[in-house]
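Hi Q.,

Before the meeting this afternoon, I wanted you to have the coproporphyrinogen III prediction in hand. No need to reply - just skim if you have a minute. The sequence and ligand are here:
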Amino acid sequence: MKHQTVLGQAQEPASRFLRACRRLPVDATPVWFMRQAGRYMPEYRTIREKFTLLEIVQQPELAAEVTLQPVQTLGVDAAILFADILLPIIPMGLKLEFVKGEGPSIESPIRTLEDVQSLRAISAESDLGHVMEAIRILRRELPEQVPLIGFAGAPFTMASYMIEGGPSQDYRIAKGMMYAQPETWHALMSKLADTLSGYLIAQIQAGAQAVQLFDSWVGALHPLDYDRYVLPYSAQVLQAVSGKGVPVIHFGTNTSTLLKSMKRAGGNVIGLDWRIPLDQGWQLLGEDTVIQGNLDPVSLFAPISELRAHVREVMKQADGRPGHIFNLGHGILQHTPVENVKAVVEMVHE
Ligand code: CP3
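Predicted structure with the ligand bound:
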């Protein structure tokens, strides 16, 4: 079988999502959403009143419960593990906090080669055992047709937080390290590539049925800088998980000019954000690529009739080709009306 060589799996999967990842025919286009669990959901907020984000992800039973919420409420075709891309930096030795209204904050960001050298090499299975335990619980609890997606941040997006210490508008400090201290930059990216490869492999071994690499902020880069400073490290991670029998999704935002390089870096599925029409993205990447995307998350705030028109537009551009996974172009925003998210699932399945 042709697909056996691609993903090392002999059997054809039953789930729509896994079938689409392999460009097999599906009864309806599969749909799931980045950030499908979170504050826009009342059942998440109820749990969040009692626990912080880190407390939720560090208790496998709770993380599993939150992961299941959107599966039950929305009827999506895949579950994404409830965790955060920044979790691995805690056992690496950085102090991470999530500050209300501001996002992640790192107490002593990485600025020198000594800082990089002092980062611990972690063992994902023991240092992030709570993540692996949540995966094992979820594999027992999820219905068979709803596969579990594991994930990690890509080296650039991880490095940008570790260097900046939090979110950034212009990545001045991170790019500053790239240009002024290339040795430090490459040492950090290399360490991250090793760590993130091990983390994703451990998730697959624990039972993740697909993995996504989030390079959320990579669109800040010139394509040549991507090729020089980032591509080799993303490629290392994507290469490490290819051939492990599960589909690998490679996602970023603001990537219209980076798509070809991202495909070269790897992944069997490429995520598109909403700034590029899906058919144009597909054409750039080649018809043999599996595409995930790409509704604008803000269109979920539109009146239903307008939202329906936007969903139709994406579906029309996908044009029934095999290998389309419907998603947003980025994560669900806080305050998104839950009933609109649910309506999109129904529209896509129709
Ligand atoms: O449902 C899911 O998609 C799974 C859970 C998930 C979270 N973070 C939980 C979370 C996933 C896949 C992530 C990935 C993540 N985390 C990314 C990549 C995806 C993206 O959105 O680009 C990034 C860049 C992060 C870093 C991060 N974590 C930021 C910038 C923030 C603050 C943003 C905000 O909305 O406050 C977080 C916190 C975070 N991670 C929340 C959730 C649900 C907010 C929740 C809370 O405080 O309860």
